[in-house]
């Protein structure tokens, strides 16, 4: 099924051709003067230069043809040469009826089905997830769902940071605290304990402690003499941690066994966090996954002349003549021979090519890493780690800020843990839902809840669902690349451009549909809308008809915010229709069936759209 806009455009293009002009001039867009028309075409303006003719004359020629087209209620040429369009209610009614029968509501999947890998999440083992990790998870998950909806074969990889210095720091600190553990006894040949020698909370304390020891801070009023010895101590500690990292990576048995424990404890905790966000991954790979393939990769890069030594380090030059900014070489090995973040990313691309042959790899990472990824992409292409036609795409996102415009912090000024943040929003939502119940629903209206009947456990379940919409919508409604302000009060509000407002609207529709069914009226699956009875009904149908085009736009630009803007518009149109129309009280049965049918389609389009954003609606709230 073609999108509504495509059909309209088909008519207009044909009209241009029939009037003797290039059909390509007939592109149509949503009107930016909704008070005058629903759609518009600006092609006559472009045609003026081509045909040396006044744009208004071209527009009039085209409108004369369109006058006979039953798809339009009117097509009007206005100065200086715009074509204003209003679709006929019959054509819209037919389209909406067809949408109901179409599983994708008028959207055609991408005929070029691609294999796409998406690298998102990117948590670091043993460091608690913080609010910065929210964006990668939320944006990545939504993009994954959009890509899939369009018919692509998509695999998500969490790409954990699980192999670098942070692992060495943890092992080093453990060794200081519990040197008696068998992991540190090099002559130990027995079996290591099954139980980890720490819990997740201990682990999360060990890492920052170790990191603090390795990087002592200089106090504000401290003189250099006092800082110098602490700095020396820190350097010595860091050297020990680096040694631990190296031993781990070289495969020392006890260290690997400890690493397994760290991974098991940390990954179990991560899984809980991501589950709470309704985010999941096909691959739980990490930097460590590619460790064993690094030597062969490095050897090839050297042998084939792609990498060379520069001040002791092994690098690949990636600068190009057309560069306007400086593009430093991509380092493959440090001068001490150790591998680094870059090395694991290159080896991961190699593994992805060998195992999954993706057509495209998308990285959803903090935009501050954009230069880094440019280096990686160039190095991978140049050294044939990936094929020329593999599309490597960096989707950089901005920072989550607090109301003060600075990176989001706890009240005490520390880093905000993701789990605490989710907890806070859940709590706020629960309170609002309970308050709402006691007040008999917002606006005194009952949207499907039996006030006293709702048990606490159920209220909590609903609060969690609504909280997720608040978090995800709050994030996704901003363009990914922009920084945004995390404002709990605004995000959790039932009014305005928020997740809870969207869910409230959906629950309202569900409640009407349930009441209609309860009234004993037959709810045939094959219902139709007979006609458009009001401007509000037509407006709702028009917004619905745009779903396909919006989804394609969000897909082509990897832009979930476009779906957010759409569901907000849909919610507004739906609520205007609801407030202006007697639905359950309507006595004309044909009319009423049409309303119910339209609401049912609205509910389905909503459900699909919010699923693309990564959340769902409760049955009542
Ligand atoms: N762990 C990294 C960080 O916290 C993000 C990983 C992004 N993905 C990648 N393939 N490098 O910065």
What does this structure look like?
This protein is α/β, with parallel strands linked by helices. Among the domains are: 4-87, 2-Layer Sandwich (Gyrase A, domain 2), CATH 3.30.1360.70; 418-613, Isoleucyl-tRNA Synthetase, Domain 1 (Orthogonal Bundle). The protein is 51% helix and 9% strand. It has 20 helices and 13 strands. A 4-stranded antiparallel beta sheet has the order 1-2-4-3. Strands 6-5-10-11 form a 4-stranded parallel beta sheet, with helices on both faces. Strand 3 and strand 4 form a beta hairpin. Helix 13 crosses helix 14 (456-476) and helix 19 packs antiparallel against helix 20. The chain starts with a helix and ends in an 8-residue tail after the last helix. The mean pLDDT is 93. Bound molecules: arginine. Residues 119, 122, 124, 159, 161, 345, 363, 365 line the site of arginine.
How many DSSP helices?
A: 20
Mind telling me which CATH architecture of the domain at 418-613 this is? Answer: Orthogonal Bundle
- Report Rg: 30 Å
Q: State the CATH topology of the domain at 418-613.
A: Isoleucyl-tRNA Synthetase, Domain 1
- The CATH class of the domain at 418-613 is identified as Mainly Alpha
**Overall mean confidence score, pLDDT:** 93
The largest beta-sheet arranges its strands as 1-2-4-3
**Major pleated sheet:** 4 strands, antiparallel
> Helical content, roughly?
40-55%
Question: What distance separates the N and C termini?
Answer: 35 Å
Structural class: alpha/beta
Write down how many β-strands occur, each being a DSSP E stretch of 2 or more residues. 13
The CATH homologous superfamily name of the domain at 418-613 equals Isoleucyl-tRNA Synthetase, Domain 1
Low-pLDDT stretches: none
Bound molecules: arginine
Note the overall shape: globular
Strand content: 5-15%
